[in-house]
UniProtKB/TrEMBL annotation:
Name this polypeptide is given: Glutamine synthetase
Stored Pfam families: Gln-synt_C (PF00120), Gln-synt_C-ter (PF18318), GSIII_N (PF12437)
InterPro entries per the UniProt record, alphabetical: Gln-synt_C, Gln_synt_N, Gln_synth/guanido_kin_cat_dom, Gln_synth_cat_dom, Gln_synth_gly_rich_site, GS_Type-3, GSIII_N
Gene source species: Muriicola marianensis
SUPFAM superfamilies given in the database record: Glutamine synthetase/guanido kinase
Lineage: Bacteria, Pseudomonadati, Bacteroidota, Flavobacteriia, Flavobacteriales
Limits of the GS catalytic domain: 178-615
Length: 728
C-alpha cells in the first residue's frame, strides 16, 4: 500500500487520548490574560483610565502623554505575566490575522539593556506591509502602511506576546484591513440607532451592535490530514469517494462527543477563557467529525476579534491533541459543510436589547421600529449583503441545500407576520383614540406573548428572526465576520437615518404625535419590503422561481455576487455613511476577485498534481496487476481465455475509460487555466476561472472517484473518506 497513506493510518490508530483536567474554575480564570477593566483599574492612573474609557465610549483620541502612561502600565502588567514581546495584531484583507513581534528588550546607547515600550509603540507601528493585498491602493514603492491602536478591543497576552488589536491603514489613510471599515460601520449604526432609540428613552447615549457567532468546524487526525496534499494546500478534499456511511443515520448530531474531541474542546475552552473569549456551548454537528462552538454574544468589534483569535487558538490546541481543524466551508463532498451563523442585534448603553419586546406598549413599539427597519434595510440591500459572504470556498455551500440559498430573504414566523399584516392597515395620518387603543392592546401589546412561544424555526432561511435577534446564516466558517457585519450595520444605519428623517418630518409638517408618525412610516416600510419576507422552504425549486418573480437577486457565484459592491448605489452608500471611500470599495472588490482567482488557480494546480502523480499511477499499477492476471489466464486457457477472464477484462476496460477521461479532462482544465491566466481584465479573469476552469473540477473528480472504487485498496494512495471521517 502507498506508504504515505499506510503510515498515516498506522499513526492515527495508535493515538493515545491526551486527557485534559481543568485545574481552575472558569469564572476565576476568565480574562486572566487580558488587559481588561479590572487590570486597567489596578494598573492605570485615574486620568489614564478615564481617557481609555472615553475613547471606547465616544471614539475620542488618546493624547500622546496619556498613551505613554498607558503603555508603561501595560508593559508592567505584560512583564509580570511573563511576556517578552509585543505585537500590533491586525486583520489584513487576506482574511486571517497578522502580527509582527518586537521584543520589549532594548539597548540604551551606553550598552545597558532595558525593557522598552512607550506610547509611540502602543499607538502606532509601521509593519513592512508590502506583501499584504491592497487592491492597488498602495503601490509597492510607497509600501508604507501603518497599524493604529484600537482601544475598544483590549490588549491580551497570547503565548509570551502582548497583542495589541489595531487597524491597518495605508499612508494616505485608506483602510487596508477588515477592522477599520467595521469600526466605521459600528460608529454609523451607533449614531443612527441612538437617534431613533431616543424617541423611546431620552437617557440612551450609545447603541452597540452585538454579535454572537456560532463556529462550525471539522476535526481530523493530524497524520491523516497531512497525508492528503489537497487538504494541506486547499483546505478541502478535491477527490474522494463518499464513505459507505455518511451522515444518513443522523447519529452524530448532538450525540456523545468523541473522547479525543472532548479533550481538545476542554483544553481549547480553558485557553479561550484566559483570553476572555466567553465560550459557552459545544456540540457535535450534523456530519461525522463535525462540531460547533458558540460563545456568549458580545459587542460586535470584540466578537469579531474573538472569533479570529479563536480560530488561531483552535489550530494550536488541536495540534497538541494530534488533530487538525478544518475551517473550509466544504472540506468533504456529500456531507454537510461548515458555516458560521452570525446572531446580531442592537443594544443600548442602558442595557436594552432593541430587538427584544418589553413590558409596555412603548417598548414594543420600539421593538417594532428596529425590527421593521432591519427588514427594510435588508430588502433594499439584499444583494450587497449576499456579496458580503461571497468567496470561492463558500460558493460550495450556498444553495447546496445544506446552507441557505444564495437568495436573501427574511424569516419572521407566522405570528409576527400577522402583526405586520395588521400594521399595514393602520390609518393614514392621525389615528383615532379607538385605533390607538386597539393597536396598543391587541397588536403591539401581544408581541411579548407571541415571542415567548415563537418556537417555529426555519433552518432554510438565510436571515431569520429568532426571538430577540436576527441570525444571518450564510456566513462561511472560514470567513472574517467583519465583512458581513460591516455591511449589515451600514445598511441598518442608513435605514435608521432615513426613518428618523421621515418621522421627524411627519411630526413637524403634519403635526402628528410621535407614535402616530412612527406607525405611519412603519406601515409604508412594511408594504414596501414585503418581497423579502419568506417563511417557506428556502431549498425548494419553487422558491427559486418565486424569488425571481419578486426580483430578488440570486447570484450563485462569487464573481457575479461581487459586482454589486462597485455599483453606484453601493459606492454612494459606503461613502455617505463614511464607512469606505470609493477607492477603498474598489480596492476591496479587486482583492476579493484576486483571492477568488488565486484560490481557484491553486485548486487547479493541486488537482493536476494529484491526478498525474498519484491517481493515474495508482490506477496504472492496478491495471498492470489485472493485465498480468489476464496474461496468466490466457497462458492456461489459450484462445478461449476470454470466457475465464470476463470480470478482469471488464475491470480493465472500466479503468482505461476513467483513466483516459481523467487525463483528458485535466489536460483540458490546464488549457482553460492558461487561457484564463492570459486574461488582463480581472473581472474577465475571475469569470473565466469560474465558468471555464472550475466546472472541470467536478468532472475530473467524478472519474477519480470511480477509479477509487475500482482500484485495489492496497494500491490507493490517498486516505479515504472513511478513514478521514471515522478514525477517532
Ligand atoms: P441556536 O441558534 O443554536 O438555537 P441560541 O438562540 O441560544 O442558539 O443563540 C445562538 C447564539 O446567539 C449564541 O452565540 C448567542 O450568544 C447569540 N445571541 C443571543 N442573544 C444575542 C443578541 N442579543 N445579540 C447577538 N447575539 C445573540
Ligand atoms: Mg444558530
Amino acid at each position: 500500500m502507498s506508504t504515505q497513506r499506510t503510515n498515516a493510518i498506522r499513526e492515527s490508530s495508535k493515538r493515545k487520548t491526551r486527557s485534559f483536567v481543568e485545574q481552575i474554575r472558569r469564572s476565576e480564570l476568565f480574562g486572566s490574560h487580558v488587559f481588561n477593566e479590572d487590570k486597567m483599574v489596578q494598573y492605570l492612573t485615574r486620568d489614564a483610565y478615564e481617557s481609555v474609557k472615553n475613547a471606547i465610549f465616544t471614539g475620542s483620541k488618546i493624547d500622546r502623554k496619556m498613551a505613554d502612561q498607558i503603555a508603561e502600565s501595560m508593559k508592567a502588567w505584560a512583564l509580570s505575566m511573563g511576556a517578552t514581546h509585543y505585537t500590533h495584531w491586525f486583520q489584513p484583507l487576506t482574511g486571517a490575522t497578522a502580527e509582527k513581534h518586537d521584543a520589549f528588550f532594548d539597548l540604551m546607547p551606553n550598552g545597558r539593556a532595558l525593557e522598552k515600550f512607550g506610547g509611540g509603540q502602543l499607538v502606532q507601528q509601521e509593519p513592512d506591509a508590502s506583501s499584504f493585498p491592497s487592491g492597488g491602493i498602495r503601490n509597492t514603492f510607497e509600501a508604507r502602511g501603518y497599524t493604529a491602536w484600537d482601544p475598544s478591543s483590549p490588549a491580551f497576552i497570547y503565548g509570551a506576546t502582548l497583542c495589541i488589536p489595531t487597524i491597518f491603514v495605508s499612508y494616505t489613510g485608506e483602510a487596508l484591513d477588515n477592522k477599520a471599515p467595521l469600526l466605521r460601520a459600528l460608529h454609523a449604526v451607533d449614531q443612527a440607532a441612538t437617534g431613533v432609540a431616543r424617541y423611546f428613552d431620552k437617557s440612551v447615549n450609545k447603541v452597540m451592535a452585538t454579535l454572537g457567532w456560532e463556529q462550525e468546524y471539522f476535526l481530523i487526525d493530524k497524520a491523516l490530514a497531512s497525508s492528503r496534499p489537497d487538504l494541506v494546500l486547499t483546505g478541502r478534499t478535491l477527490v474522494g469517494q463518499a464513505a459507505a456511511k455518511g451522515q444518513q443515520l443522523d447519529d452524530h448530531y448532538f450525540g456523545v462527543i468523541p473522547r479525543r474531541a472532548l479533550n481538545f474542546m476542554k483544553d481549547l475552552e480553558v485557553e479561550c477563557t484566559k483570553l476572555g473569549i466567553p465560550v459557552k456551548t459545544r456540540h457535535n454537528e450534523v456530519a461525522p467529525n463535525q462540531f460547533e462552538l458558540a460563545p456568549v454574544f458580545e459587542e460586535a468589534n470584540l466578537a469579531v476579534d474573538h472569533n479570529l483569535l479563536l480560530m488561531d487558538v483552535m489550530e494550536k490546541v488541536a495540534d497538541r491533541h494530534d488533530l487538525k481543524v478544518l475551517f473550509h466551508e466544504k472540506p468533504f463532498a456529500g456531507i454537510n459543510g461548515s458555516g458560521k451563523h452570525n446572531n446580531w442585534s442592537l443594544a443600548t448603553d442602558t442595557g436594552v436589547n432593541l430587538l427584544s419586546p418589553g413590558s409596555t406598549p412603548m417598548k414594543n413599539l420600539q421593538f417594532l421600529t428596529f425590527f421593521v427597519n432591519t427588514i427594510k434595510a435588508v430588502d433594499t440591500y439584499e444583494e450587497l449583503l449576499r456579496a458580503s459572504i461571497a468567496s470561492a470556498t463558500n460558493d460550495h455551500r450556498l444553495g447546496a441545500n445544506e446552507a441557505p440559498p444564495a437568495i436573501f430573504s427574511i424569516f419572521i414566523g407566522e405570528q409576527l407576520s400577522a402583526v405586520l399584516d395588521e400594521l399595514e392597515g393602520v390609518s393614514q395620518g392621525k389615528l383615532s383614540p379607538e385605533e390607538k387603543t386597539e393597536l396598543k392592546l391587541n397588536v403591539v401589546g401581544k408581541i411579548p406573548e407571541i415571542l415567548l412561544d415563537n418556537t417555529d424555526r426555519n433552518r432554510t432561511s438565510p436571515f431569520a428572526f429568532t426571538g430577540n435577534k436576527f441570525e444571518m446564516r450564510g456566513v462561511g466558517a472560514k470567513m472574517n465576520c467583519a465583512k458581513p457585519m460591516t455591511v449589515l450595520n451600514t445598511i441598518v444605519a442608513r435605514q435608521l437615518i432615513e426613518f428618523k428623517k421621515e418621522v421627524d418630518k411627519l411630526i413637524e409638517k403634519k403635526k402628528l404625535k410621535k407614535d402616530e408618525a412612527i406607525f405611519n412610516v412603519l406601515r409604508e416600510y412594511i408594504k414596501a419590503s414585503k418581497r423579502i419576507r419568506f417563511d417557506g422552504d428556502g431549498y425548494s425549486e419553487n422558491w427559486q422561481k418565486e424569488a425571481a418573480k419578486r426580483k430578488l437577486s440570486n447570484n450563485k457565484t462569487t464573481p457575479e455576487a461581487l459586482e454589486i459592491v462597485v455599483a453606484k448605489a453601493s459606492v454612494d452608500l459606503f461613502r455617505d455613511m463614511q464607512v469606505m471611500s470609493e477607492v477603498e470599495v474598489k480596492a476591496r472588490h479587486e482583492v476579493d476577485l484576486e483571492t477568488y482567482i488565486l484560490q481557484t488557480q491553486i485548486e487547479g494546480r493541486v488537482f493536476n498534481e494529484l491526478v498525474n502523480t498519484q491517481i493515474i499511477p495508482a490506477a496504472i499499477a492496478y491495471q498492470n496487476k489485472v493485465i498480468s492476471n489476464i496474461k496468466g489466464i490466457k497462458e492456461i486457457y489459450g484462445s478461449g481465455f476470454q470466457k475465464h477472464a470476463e470480470a478482469q477484462l471488464s475491470i480493465l476496460e472500466e479503468i482505461s475509460g476513467h483513466l483516459a477521461a481523467t487525463r483528458k479532462k485535466s489536460e483540458a482544465m490546464t488549457e482553460a487555466r492558461k487561457k484564463a491566466n492570459a486574461e488582463k481584465d480581472i473581472r474577465k479573469k475571475a469569470n473565466a476561472y469560474c465558468h471555464e476552469v472550475r466546472p472541470y473540477f467536478e468532472d475530473i473528480r467524478y472519474h477519480c472517484d470511480k477509479l477509487e472504487q475500482l482500484v485495489d485498496d492496497q494500491d490507493w494512495p490517498l486516505a479515504k473518506y472513511r478513514e478521514l471521517l471515522f478514525i477517532r
